[in-house]
């Protein structure tokens, strides 16, 4: 068994692939993914490709389709994936010796918060959620599981943060769980939205996000898999990368 990989394969190949194909969400997710110009994660992959010495191709698709493609092995992996036990059944994360995800090899860390219609009766103290109504989330996002665990009636059909918040403003949802960087960008860029919505404190969750790999790719290319995780941790902390993404965010986690 290769350190950092979970599985029971009898042997691990050391061969390098000709290229690596990673899928990601096909909608803007500021500042991580941006269609019109490279976002944080796209810039990290550019740095990764240079240091890895292999072509790293990005493939945009709906997030659920991306995860299904990792599961099927039709792509090598995915970027911007938080850890869930369900995903760990078909995809590989960088792991510590105790089997927990190794956050030092993350791409970034991001938080989720609840955004409610102004004046809506939503109570959240960090442990208990009290509200009557439907909560919104983006399709296939891991925060859905947390909302359901908290007892919330949840609908996850919105493709983007913009759409989620507009549904809250229109009264379709009592609140929505949105990544805070995306939500704040939406509130700042959509006219009139900020006056209808308020953020609920404290944050709902904060979690690291990783590059994950299909089990078939990791079995064939263990060294490449480990090297990508190592390099991402190194790139995230480098001054060159922090400068490259400084126009997107005030500080780099």
Mind describing the biggest β-sheet?
A: 9 strands, mixed
What integer value in Å does the Rg equal?
19 Å
Helix content percent band: 25-40%
Morphology: globular
- Strand content is 25-35%
Count helical runs.
9
Secondary-structure content class: alpha/beta
**Elements, N to C (H/E):** EHEHEHEEEEEHEHEHEHHH
- Low-confidence blocks of residues: 6-13
Cα separation of the termini: 31 Å
Number of strands: 11
The residue-averaged pLDDT reads: 92
Descriptors:
253 residues; alpha/beta; nine-stranded mixed beta sheet; two-stranded antiparallel ribbon; 11 strands; 32% helix
Question: Topology, pairings included?
Answer:
Elements: E1 20-25, H1 40-52, E2 56-61, H2 63-72, E3 77-82, H3 85-88, E4 91-92, E5 108-117, E6 123-124, E7 129-130, E8 134-138, H4 143-149, E9 153-158, H5 161-169, E10 175-179, H6 180-189, E11 197-214, H7 215-220, H8 222-237, H9 239-244
Parallel strand pairs: 1-2, 1-3, 8-9, 8-10
Antiparallel strand pairs: 3-11, 4-11, 5-10, 5-11, 6-7
Describe the fold and architecture.
The structure is a single chain. The chain has helices at 40-52, 63-72, 85-88, 143-149, 161-169, 180-189, 215-220, 222-237, 239-244, and strands spanning 20-25, 56-61, 77-82, 91-92, 108-117, 123-124, 129-130, 134-138, 153-158, 175-179, 197-214. With 253 residues, it is an alpha/beta fold. It is 32% helix and 27% strand. Strands 1, 2, 3, 4, 5, 8, 9, 10 and 11 form a nine-stranded mixed sheet that branches. Strands 6-7 form a two-stranded antiparallel ribbon. It contains nine helices and eleven strands. Strand 8, helix 4 and strand 9 form a beta-alpha-beta unit. Helix 1 (40-52) packs across helix 8.
């Amino acid at each position: 068994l290769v350190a950092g990989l979970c599985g029971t394969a009898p042997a691990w190949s050391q061969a390098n692939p000709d290229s690596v194909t990673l899928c990601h969400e096909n909608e803007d997710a500021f500042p991580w993914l941006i269609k019109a110009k490279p976002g944080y994660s796209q810039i990290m992959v550019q740095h990764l490709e240079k240091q890895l010495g292999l072509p790293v191709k990005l493939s945009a698709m709906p997030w659920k389709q991306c995860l299904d493609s990792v599961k099927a092995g039709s792509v090598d992996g995915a970027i911007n994936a938080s850890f869930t036990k369900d995903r760990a059944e078909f995809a590989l994360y960088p792991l510590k010796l105790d089997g927990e995800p190794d956050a030092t090899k993350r791409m970034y860390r991001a938080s989720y918060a609840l955004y409610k219609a102004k004046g809506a009766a939503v109570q959240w103290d960090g442990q208990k959620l009290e509200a009557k109504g439907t909560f919104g989330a983006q399709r296939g996002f891991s925060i859905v599981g947390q909302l359901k665990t908290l007892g919330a009636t949840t609908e996850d059909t919105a493709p983007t943060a913009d759409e989620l918040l507009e549904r809250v403003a229109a009264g379709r949802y009592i609140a929505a769980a949105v990544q805070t960087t995306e939500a704040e960008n939406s509130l700042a860029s959509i006219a009139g939205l900020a006056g209808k919505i308020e953020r609920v404190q404290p944050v709902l969750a904060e979690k690291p996000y990783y590059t994950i790999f299909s089990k078939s790719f990791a079995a064939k290319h263990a060294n490449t898999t480990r090297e990508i995780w190592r390099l991402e941790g190194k790139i995230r902390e480098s001054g060159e990368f922090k400068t490259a993404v400084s126009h997107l965010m005030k500080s780099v986690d």
